[in-house]
Amino acid sequence: MAIERTLSIIKPDATRRNLTGKINARFEENGLRIVAQKRLQLTQAQAEGFYDVHRERSFFGELVAFMISGPVVVQVLEGENAVVRNREIMGATNPANAAEGTIRKDFAESIEANSVHGSDSLENAAREISFFFAEIEIAG
Ligand code: IDP
């Protein structure tokens, strides 16, 4: 299997509850390596730009407001099959549907405040990583 990189975000509901370390442990225990990481307060323009693909969705305004409601931790995860692997570790978007042992099952508050973001394809991972990180900031 190929070594891939994916973009992860620990969302404001999780940073507010001081869950960064517990969430990072899930990645590391499941074979993903955190090869870049920084804590940021997103601006409205940055959040809108990052979620541009969702601009037409009914929840876009609420999602942007939530994502700027507190700091986030943006990170690059690296490992075998990292994009799909991270989606498995995260669990389903709605925590009510998330499998046992996933981050969203154990920590998410709601379908919106669902603790983590993870890229959904290799192509989106490359775009999302370059949104937040320069290559020199990533040490694999
Ligand atoms: P994903 O994060 O599991 O890839 P997406 O469908 O891409 O899910 O949605 C992006 C984010 O938008 C979700 O993680 C969640 O925070 C928010 N979201 C998705 N669906 C809803 C909804 O029905 N109401 C409110 N927020 C939503």
TrEMBL record:
<keyword id="KW-0547">Nucleotide-binding</keyword>
<dbReference type="GO" id="GO:0006183">
    <property type="term" value="P:GTP biosynthetic process"/>
</dbReference>
<feature type="binding site">
    <location>
        <position position="114"/>
    </location>
    <ligand>
        <name>ATP</name>
    </ligand>
</feature>
<dbReference type="GO" id="GO:0006241">
    <property type="term" value="P:CTP biosynthetic process"/>
</dbReference>
<feature type="domain" description="Nucleoside diphosphate kinase-like">
    <location>
        <begin position="3"/>
        <end position="140"/>
    </location>
</feature>
<dbReference type="InterPro" id="IPR036850">
    <property type="entry name" value="NDK-like_dom_sf"/>
</dbReference>
<dbReference type="GO" id="GO:0005737">
    <property type="term" value="C:cytoplasm"/>
</dbReference>
<feature type="binding site">
    <location>
        <position position="93"/>
    </location>
    <ligand>
        <name>ATP</name>
    </ligand>
</feature>
<dbReference type="Pfam" id="PF00334">
    <property type="entry name" value="NDK"/>
</dbReference>
<dbReference type="GO" id="GO:0004550">
    <property type="term" value="F:nucleoside diphosphate kinase activity"/>
</dbReference>
<dbReference type="InterPro" id="IPR023005">
    <property type="entry name" value="Nucleoside_diP_kinase_AS"/>
</dbReference>
<keyword id="KW-0460">Magnesium</keyword>
<protein>
    <recommendedName>
        <fullName>Nucleoside diphosphate kinase</fullName>
        <ecNumber>2.7.4.6</ecNumber>
    </recommendedName>
</protein>
<feature type="binding site">
    <location>
        <position position="59"/>
    </location>
    <ligand>
        <name>ATP</name>
    </ligand>
</feature>
<feature type="binding site">
    <location>
        <position position="87"/>
    </location>
    <ligand>
        <name>ATP</name>
    </ligand>
</feature>
<keyword id="KW-0597">Phosphoprotein</keyword>
<keyword id="KW-0418">Kinase</keyword>
<keyword id="KW-0546">Nucleotide metabolism</keyword>
<feature type="binding site">
    <location>
        <position position="104"/>
    </location>
    <ligand>
        <name>ATP</name>
    </ligand>
</feature>
<keyword id="KW-0808">Transferase</keyword>
<keyword id="KW-0963">Cytoplasm</keyword>
<dbReference type="GO" id="GO:0005524">
    <property type="term" value="F:ATP binding"/>
</dbReference>
<feature type="active site" description="Pros-phosphohistidine intermediate">
    <location>
        <position position="117"/>
    </location>
</feature>
<dbReference type="InterPro" id="IPR034907">
    <property type="entry name" value="NDK-like_dom"/>
</dbReference>
<comment type="subunit">
    <text>Homotetramer.</text>
</comment>
<dbReference type="GO" id="GO:0006228">
    <property type="term" value="P:UTP biosynthetic process"/>
</dbReference>
<dbReference type="InterPro" id="IPR001564">
    <property type="entry name" value="Nucleoside_diP_kinase"/>
</dbReference>
<feature type="binding site">
    <location>
        <position position="11"/>
    </location>
    <ligand>
        <name>ATP</name>
    </ligand>
</feature>
<comment type="similarity">
    <text>Belongs to the NDK family.</text>
</comment>
<keyword id="KW-0479">Metal-binding</keyword>
<keyword id="KW-0067">ATP-binding</keyword>
<dbReference type="GO" id="GO:0046872">
    <property type="term" value="F:metal ion binding"/>
</dbReference>
<comment type="function">
    <text>Major role in the synthesis of nucleoside triphosphates other than ATP. The ATP gamma phosphate is transferred to the NDP beta phosphate via a ping-pong mechanism, using a phosphorylated active-site intermediate.</text>
</comment>
